Amino acid sequence: MKPPVLIVDDEVSLCGLLEVFFEKKGYAPVSAHNVAGALKRMEGPEPLMAMVDLTLGPESGLTVVKALMEKYPRLPVVVMTAYGTVEKAVEAVKLGAFDFISKPFEMVFLGKVVEKAVSTRVLEEENRELKNFIRRQGVELVGQSPAVRQLRDRIDAIAVSESTVLITGESGTGKELVAKLIHQKSLRAHKSFVVVNCSALSENLLESELFGHVKGAFTSAHLDKEGLFAVAEGGTVFLDEIGEMPMRTQVKLLRVIQEREITPVGGTASSRIDVRLLAATNVNLEEAVAQGRFREDLYYRLNVLRIYTPALSERGEDAALLANHFLQRKAHGRKSFTPGALAMIEGYAWPGNVRQLENAVERAIAFSTRETIETLELDLKVPAAPGAGPSASPTAETGVLGGWGPESASVMPETGMVPTLNDIEKAWIYWVLSQNHWHKPTAAKILGLDISTLYRKIEKYGLKAQT
Ligand SMILES: Nc1ncnc2c1ncn2[C@@H]1O[C@H](COP(=O)(O)OP(=O)(O)OP(=O)(O)O)[C@@H](O)[C@H]1O
Ligand SMILES: [Mg+2]
Q: Using 50, 70 and 90 to split pLDDT, how confident is the model at 393?
């Protein structure tokens, strides 16, 4: 179907000209000569764009523009004005019209205006579809650091292959996300992506999950059950935490990989399968092999292609980017970070990687009552506190302010005393410094102090790095 274009002008001959113009461009123009006619035309399908004359005899074209914008907020409307009625055109643009063109106009000029209106519309729609697509999929690998760019390239290169992939990386670095992306970019994308957590189930359950079972295979097997390998037929199976797979299951998995066949638990007949295998681990598999906890032959079968998800601390400025991404996603643009909070996010070590960051942002959104999220609301825990630190140094268990939050008992655990403002300031400055490798300019930025004030306070409290 040709895309409809609505033309509203009381000059019948001009409508005719415009119709010819739009027909030649492959559109389906429809004309109206007054407000009532235009409203009637609007009962049909939504046009791709509209051209509206601002003086329709005794009536005003603005009425039509208003009605159009109300019904189709994204419709590009180009208004046509006679010489000397620019104010009206401005009014139309304020109402949401896309552009205006003064009569009489050259056809070449009209062509340009129309092209701009249509391409804006098409782009907008593509953009929306793309966003929907991403939302539907829910997977987006955020990051601009060299490490993440490399990861992206590697995913693209690996996705089209049919080989087994071993995904390694610390906990919370996005291994499952990478597995999903590999599946989505592969030729199997339209088939299932099935996740199996190898550490969550007992040996027997895991095997019946993976390979299925026949009726009567064990006491609770009342019916035949299809295994996940069969469910994923044509698609991808993601074996998460493969390092935790029991030895006996490892033997069976090896056979499946070698023979591309599965036999349900308790069954004798095997059936061929067509699945791609992805596996992830945050334990060192080489070490597990050396210690006899993981079969060497299976290790070689899995480690055909390898992909490594870098720790957040290896991703430079990505922490702030990710934090803003999660904030946007979870608070829908209603909240933002203070510069201090962002500097803190960039400086923090994130031992729990992206997952920890995501949780911290979620918690901060829940706790913050204002539009900005402050440093304190991030509530980042300190790694093990140095033994001989200042008496008020916070600990991993108690958090930044050593558990002296406004809602807590307000008594210092060690001394039973209520801390003074100085105690808190000392602890807080110490903590920020220790989180930022004692880099004073960064700490000053986070604390909102100028550098000389920070030096004065370091001196006053006798703060120094613990070695
Ligand atoms: N680059 C990224 N961009 C956006 N979100 C990410 C990114 N990396 C990880 N995440 C998100 O962080 C969370 C943790 O990621 P994921 O579960 O993939 O990590 P993992 O490596 O499998 O962790 P674990 O080893 O603990 O299972 C998920 O919600 C994931 O969507
Ligand atoms: Mg995982």
A: very low
Residue nearest to atom 25 of ligand 1 (CA): 171
**Res. 234 pLDDT band, cuts 50 70 90:** very high
**Phi-psi map region of 129: left, alpha, beta (phi>0 left; psi -120 to 50 alpha):** alpha
Q: Measured in angstroms, how far is the CA atom of residue 140 from the centroid of ligand 1?
A: 10
pLDDT for the residue 305 = 96
Q: Which of 355, 358, 359, 362 to mutate to test the pocket of ligand 1 (most atoms within 8 A of CB)?
A: 355
pLDDT at 101: 92
Would you state the structure tokens that stand for residue 78, as one six-digit string? 């180009």
Task: Please give the backbone phi and psi of residue 446, each rounded to the nearest 5 degrees, phi first.
Answer: -65, -40
Sign of the C-alpha dihedral computed for residues 94, 95, 96 and 97 taken in this order? negative
Give the three-class secondary structure for 174. Answer: coil
Enter the tokens of residue 25. Answer: 């461009």
Output phi, psi for 272, to 5 deg.
-75, 145
Report pLDDT for 34: 95
Domains observed in the chain? 4-135 (3.40.50.2300), 146-310 (3.40.50.300), 318-461 (1.10.8.60)
DSSP letter (8 states) at residue 198: T
